[in-house]
Every structure is written in C-alpha cells, then in structure tokens.
Amino acid sequence: MARGPPDNSTIFTQEEFESDSYKMKNKVMTVYFCLHTPHGPPQSYKPVGIDTPNKCIVPFDGKVSQVDVDVKTMNKFYSERFGKEQLVVMVFPNFSWNDKEELEKLDKKAKGCDAFFFHFFTYLKDGGKENYKLEFAGEALPLDEVFEKIKLLKSFSSMALKPKVFIIQADDLNMLKPTVITKAVPTTKKYRIPSDADFMVIMSTIPQVLASKPRTRRTEENQPVVHPSDQSSHQTGAENSDGQKCSLLVQAIVNIQTDPKFKDDDLFSNTPEILGRVREIVEKTDFGDKYKDYPIPVPTTMSTLTKFLYFKHQ
C-alpha cells in the first residue's frame, strides 16, 4: 500500500521543542460537532418567555449552507486571527459518531495541522443528573467517552505535543424552567476530563437562547433599566451579522480575545477573564423575575497545556 506524504508538522526543531509557546506555523484545524434540536418531545418554555430551545441557525459560506450561530461567530474569529487560508474547517451539523465516513474525512485533514480546536455545540442530557452526557444525533455520551473517541482517531498520534482545545457549549434546558430548581441544589457538578498533556477544556451549560434576553444598566438611584439586547450585544461581541445572538461563552471568548488589552495574551492566561466576562454579562442581563433567586452557573475550565497558546501564527 502506498503511503501518503510525511507529516512535517510532527517534526520539531530543538528551538521549537524548548520554546515556551506552541509552534503555530502550519494550518489550524477547527472542528464543529453540532446538534440543532434537543432530544425528546417538544416542551414549552413560555413561562420564561422562550418558544423553542432550538439553536439559532444562520447562513454560512462553507460547504454547509446553514450552521449554528456559534459556529459562524467562532469561524469569523479564527479567520481574522489566523487568516482564512490557514484554517482547516470541518462542520458536522446534527453529528452522529456512527458516521464513519465523516470521521475519516476528519482524520485525513488533521494531518499537517499545528493546533486543534474541537467545538461541541449541543445539549446536556437530563441536566447532567447522571453524568455530563452530551447529546448527539441518536445518542448521548458522557464527556469522558467523547474525549476517548477523539483519542481513538487515527490522526490522534499526529496531534502529540500540539494544543487540543475543547470548547463545549452544552445547553442545560433545565435552566429554562428555573422554578423547579431551589437554592439548595448545588450548581457545581463533577465530570471527568482528560489528564493527557496539551489538552484544554472550556465548558458552559447556559442555554444559548438565554443570550437573547435584554441587558440592563443601573440608574443613579441604582434601579435597573432595560435596554434592547442588540445594543448591548454590540458592546459585548454578542450579535452575529445576521442579528442572531450566540451563546454567552462564545460571546466572552471572542470579546476577550479581540480586546486590545488581552488579544496578545495566551489563552490559558485569559481564561479567568473569559469566565469573568460571562459572569459580568449574566449580572447585566434581565432574565426575568423567575430567575431572581436562580444561580446561573459560570463556565468551568481545565487545562494541561504545557506551553503558551496564542491566537496567531508564530
């Protein structure tokens, strides 16, 4: 059997190996595993002013004509930071792990890349009661099994010594029924994450649809004043060019990583700023009276990155 060309991205000079930052000379792979509609029968969330928990779908210029607004927002960000020609973009709408053909395509394109950003824009099964299970087409898998499936890819060996970032937006639809949750219920849950080197995980369970709630500001009398969310979204990086609101986690990542104060810093150093920005947006959002005593959780993060990861080629 004829072998393909060698993967030169796996060859490191002594200087690159000893560098305190990851090599970012070759292409960057961005992968999006998506589910646009949650499992189970339709449910009504009108008590909190929401007609549907489905993802916001917008036009896209790639091979996939329509995508989750989070995909389009992140793709625009990566294109501006790395250059569109330097990206290997793969979008899997309504993805199933049984689709071997799609996974083979991923394997082939992964070779030669210097960094890997895996995005999971989906839903959290049953609010994470049993385990943090992410919903995919036809199944739901615990988070640790999802990581194992990535590690079983044929191309995973070529990802050694390279950064692998997992950005997980798994909507917990129980947050759309805040009256069934009491203050006594803990908001911090445990889930298994990879202990391998060069991994990073950022995960949020705040439903995307809550991002469209209006922002508030305070008067001199400290009374909240509501103003349209499209105005505040411009200030926080929330609004997509199609007028749709992306998730709070995506807002925060893009907002911080494009802020002149932080954009040249490495991703790990910026994670406190990203999590803080989500909290700031939550505190400035008018979710309604039903959320008055409801503790909306901030995203969680974990990292075994061994070097600095910058959003630029170097």
TrEMBL record:
Transmembrane segments: none annotated. It comes from Dreissena polymorpha (Zebra mussel). This is Peptidase C14 caspase domain-containing protein. One of its GO terms (molecular function) is cysteine-type endopeptidase activity. Residues 229-241 have a biased composition (Polar residues). GO terms for biological process: proteolysis. Residues 212-241 are annotated as: Disordered. Residues 67-299 form the Peptidase C14 caspase domain.
